[in-house]
Specification:
Strand content: 35-45%
Strand order of the largest sheet: 4-12-11-6-9
Structural class: mainly beta
Number of strands: 12
Distance between the termini: 30 Å
Length: 142
Amino acid sequence: MFQLQLSNPSRLVVEDALGVGTIVDDDGWVIDDESVWENNRDGKMVFIVTRDHTSEDEVVLSYSIADAGSAVGGSSCDTDGVDYLTPSGLSVTLQPDDKTATISITLCDDDEVEGRETLLVELTGVPGRKLTGVGTIVSDDR
C-alpha cells in the first residue's frame, strides 16, 4: 500500500489531497476496496474477500481494522467522533467450496461537515502474506 499527497494545485480545487493505492498481487486472493456515502441505505461498508480456487478444508482468516489517519472506530455511534463500529470476533471463514466471504462494518452517521475518511481492513492468514482493503467514507453533510 502507498499514499499519494497532492499539493499546490493550479486552477482547480482539490477536495481530498490524500490518495491511497494498493498494488494487488494476483496469486489467488483479493480483498476489494470500498467507498460508500456516510449515510448509505443500509449503513454498512462491505468488503468482499475472494479467492480463485476452492480447498479441501475450511480457511479462517483473521483481520484487523486500522484507522488510516482519519476514520475513527469505536463501540458506540453515540460517542462523539466515532465514524464506524469496531466489530468483534475479527475473523471470516471460507468453507471448502466458497470462493468469497464478506466483512461488514457498521457506519455511524453524524452531522459534521468533514472530508473523506479512510480505514484499512488488514487480513492475515492468507498463505504467505497479508492483504489490505481500503475503505473510504464519503461525508454526506454539506
